# Entry
Amino acid sequence: MANEEQLALLRRDVVAWNQWRQEHPEVRPDPCGANLSEENLHRANLSNTNLSHANLFGIDLTAANLSHANLSTADFSDVNLSHATLFGSR
# Structure
C-alpha cells in the first residue's frame, strides 16, 4: 500500500519531491500500488522507490532516475522513458 504523504508530495511538485529525496536519503519511498497514470514526473528522482503494482499508464518519466527501483508488475503502457536511468531496476 502506498505511503499517502509521499504520494501527495510526488503528485504536487517534482522539484519539491527531489529536494525532499535529497534531504532524506535514508528513506525508501513506497508508492506501491499507486495510481500515477497521466502524471508528469519529468526528471523525478525515483531511485530505490517501490513502484511495484503501480499504475503508470501514460506517465511522463522523461529523464527520471529509476535506478534500483522495484518496477515489478507495474503497468508501463504508453509511458515515456526517454533518457530515463533504469540501472539496477527490477
Summary: DSSP finds two helices and no strands in the chain. The domain at 1-90 is CATH 2.160.20.80 (Pectate Lyase C-like). The chain has a mean pLDDT of 94. Helices lie at 4-12, 14-23.
